[in-house]
Amino acid sequence: MVSLFRRRFLKQVSTVAMAGATQALLGRSLLAQSQPMSPSDAARVYVDSRRMIGALDRNLFGSFLENLGRAIYEGIYDPASRLSDGNGFRTDVMDQIRKLRVPIIRYPGGNFVSGYNWLDGVGPKADRPKVLDKAWNSLQSNQFGTNEYMGWCKAAGTEPLMGLNLGTGTPEQAAALVEYCNLEKGTEWSELRRKHGYAEPYNVKHWCLGNEMDGPWQIGHVTATEYGLKAQDSARQMRAVDPSLQLIACGSSGPLMPTYLEWDREVLEQCYDYVDGLSLHRYVGNTPEETGSDSTKYVAINLTMDQQIEETLAVCDMVRGHKRSKKQLWLSFDEWNVWYRQRTGDAVDGHRTEAPHLLEEIYNLEDALVVGGLMNSLLRHADRVKIACLAQLVNVIAPIMTNRDGLFLQTIFYPYSWGLEYARGSVLRVLTDSPTYEVAGMGQVPYLDVVGTMAEDGKVSLFILNRDLAKARSFEVNWHDKAPGQVLASWVLTGDDLKAVNGFDAPRKVVPQALEKPTTSGGRSKVEVPARSYSVIQWAS
Ligand code: AHR
Predict the structure, then answer these.
(1) Which is the catalytic residue, given 212, 266, 290, 366?
(2) How far is CA 47 from CA 372, 384, 433, 480, 520, in A?
(3) Domains, the chain
(4) Does residue 115's CB lie within 6 angstroms of at least one atom of ligand 1?
(5) Atom number of ligand 1 nearest to Cα 335
(6) How many other β-carbons are positioned within 10 Å of the β-carbon of residue 205?
(7) Nearest CA, atom 5, ligand 1
(8) Predicted model pTM
(9) Of 206, 205, 178, 204, whose CA–CA distance to 190 is shortest?
(10) What is the pLDDT of residues 409-430, one digit of tens each?
């Protein structure tokens, strides 16, 4: 069974990681009261609106809905629920996602897609087969398929990022799905869609050529050369149907993979000229192997995402040079999140039931700080990372959790929602001069991790992770060209207990609080952020 296979594999890579991991450092005693600052703690952030990293593509704040567990059924689609509309869409969940304005959502997988026959999920619902999903050992009713997803995306105000089966599926089947979705009429597959009652094509722009094909757990896993050739063939057939597509090849599914980067290089040698982007994935956790279960290291882990992005870009650009290509690829970080508790045993095995409770990770405050840090890392690379998907969106390793009576918002919901609301325009090349602390295996790590954006209308937002688990930290923002106007928003996510969680019984234990608005004079703003916190501040122009 694939999930068992993956479990064994993960154990193996964890052992490798453990060799480099260190013993727990300072531990939870750091959660003591905030201490006052000393002059040596002074920090500065320099902002100059003439220095930009690049334009921010809002698709950097995409998400992911895999046809797995209760993400779709009981998550976004539940015809039996009193909370659903006439299409069976959960209106409470839809409202949250609409309010968030999530720009793009990947579907239908994930590991699921590598054994999925899209034809099972179209046509009259009564005729759709109930099948065994071998990735998650679950039963798939197929009552929700491509047309339902397109309808849901329209209602939710988002774009689909469609995943293709390059595991058991063929390039021909991938091209047929493009034809089903994007051609108006007059061909076999476009006419099938019309026969199913959908006259208008969907014009889906972004497509993932398979999922984690480097992983031995993946259905249809092959070597990099074989996958690269299959991706090339799929891309050629798909573009023959619709030349306007944006295609993403499968890169490495994480830096602990033994084939990390070598996989990417070889895949791109085969398909560089045929694709537009390369995917990468990353899940992090406060585990004995990864962090020594040490929160001071855990809150620094986003720096390893910066490294992963930079290494992957180096490979893309190396192959570009090798091919003397004019085209520069972008990255699709199409799965990223915290995920380490619900990763084995019954948490990943559906026991051949429908809509089982799988991967229902409950997130605490420190996970939310880490998610904020990971967002900062993505923003810092906005010049090359054009799509990223918080994995996932509902019930499965998700910011939104449902039950029959409603939903609650997990801790990680808040940093994600701030990115969606306040990151606008272009990412500033912010310079942060911060005191540091020693992290085993990572060297000196700055307490403050700050990124900024500037919108077309001149509004500036700063996103601030304070990794200091014991002390509040102050810093001065030096505005190099011009000081900003009034503070429009100032929020912080913090608390005394790094392990505090939200739940149906106590949904507001970890929620944003107002952060004292910084004052500005003489081109300088004074900001103070509490210990163990993630904050956003937005100024008018
Ligand atoms: O998001 C959960 C799983 O994580 C996805 O199915 C897979 O792509 C990744 O390993």
Answers:
(1) 212
(2) 20, 21, 12, 6, 14
(3) 21-51+428-539 (2.60.40.1180), 57-422 (3.20.20.80)
(4) no
(5) 1
(6) 16
(7) 110
(8) 0.92
(9) 178
(10) 999 999 999 999 999 999 999 9
